[in-house]
UniProtKB/TrEMBL annotation:
Belongs to the class-II pyridoxal-phosphate-dependent aminotransferase family. BioF subfamily. It comes from Sinimarinibacterium flocculans. GO terms for molecular function: 8-amino-7-oxononanoate synthase activity; pyridoxal phosphate binding. Its cofactor is pyridoxal 5'-phosphate. It comes from the Bacteria. Residues 50-393 form the Aminotransferase class I/classII large domain. Substrate binds at residues 30, 142, 365. Its EC number is 2.3.1.47. InterPro entries: Aminotrans_II_pyridoxalP_BS (IPR001917), Aminotransferase_I/II_large (IPR004839), AON_synthase_class-II (IPR050087), AONS_Archaea/Proteobacteria (IPR004723), AONS_Proteobacteria (IPR022834), PyrdxlP-dep_Trfase (IPR015424), PyrdxlP-dep_Trfase_major (IPR015421), PyrdxlP-dep_Trfase_small (IPR015422). This is 8-amino-7-oxononanoate synthase. Pfam families: Aminotran_1_2.
Amino acid sequence: MPPVQPMETDRLDTRLRPQLERLRAADLYRVRRVVDGGHGVQMRVDGRACLNFCSNDYLGLATDPRVAEAARAALARDGTGSGASALISGHNREHRALEDELAAFVGRPRALLFSTGWAANLGVLRGLLGKHDVLVADELNHASLIDGGRLSGARYLRVGHGDVRGFDAALRVAQDEHPDALRLLVTDSVFSMDGDLAPLPELSRLCGERGAALMVDDAHGLGVLGARGQGACELLQVQPDIHVATLGKSLGCAGAFVAGSDTLVEFLVQRARSWVFSTAPPPAIAAAARTALRIVAGAEGVALRETLRAHIAYFREACAALGVPLMASQTAIQPLVIGAEARTLAISRALFERGYWIAAIRPPTVPRGTARLRITLTAAHTRAQIDGLVETLAGAWHDARMSAASPATAKA
């Protein structure tokens, strides 16, 4: 059979190329860097040795040999894939054991394993909500929560970031105008681009007063916050109706889970389309996550969290001493807002050339005018590595400010 000849004019490419060029011109074009080897603190990225300060591997478990060995053993025993969705033939004993252990860890009756955090949030919101229901959401929620809410068809009430009075007003409206509807308040626990915490105790109280359910995405809190590492919900002593968290950050693996009542999980088994119609994760990933969870829940997890907290305090003090104005975050996420996209890219490149990898975060991930370096610390970093970063960061930051303030730059 002769090869198919391309159309003389590819209409799709013709339409897309100008949009790509506009992204390049606005310094909003994104590129992928290639990592050679493990995704730890010391990495080889695009052929260059560097220190990684932009990972969500907060406890350094992504390259832990015990976690890798658990995956290898499961690969030898259970193979590389699940072969089908969990309701067909893909529900392995490793999946079931992980769900039971996750539920016990966060203190809930049941947990349901999803392939990604995105799938978990879409599955919950589309499964629970319909056009007669109301969703009340923080404006800085993760994109998966935003998309899940929009796709649900529910009335969407968007509230200013962390605005307790705004949430109260929105819940009052929902209660008055939709008394028989399911009213769901959804929020991140730790906001991934700012590193701040949601006012969970106040939001939980409001939900109780207004007859609403509370859903918390604790992706960046699980494993690193709270005495036992149960996350922001433990730290702030809140038990949401729906508890979502991921396994690809502090546990160093992949996947996500939804924890809650037996009724909630059984309902999601029937109605969460992103779970029902997705191939189950490989059993080896579940086995690795079980080992990581045991580390997080044990004495070693306590020590790792203490190390991480000490690193955060040390980094903030060092930056303050050198005039680097970080945002007010006490979590592992330490953003430095630059503002202009081009300047943010320039500082990120300068750091990379000096051996420090920190990604430039630009719109639409963050609001326009707030492009930033999203610096993240892990328990696997050393004080010497942090010292080197702070010194290099301070130099790049002050150089960029001097360049932006110079008459030649202003005229250009």
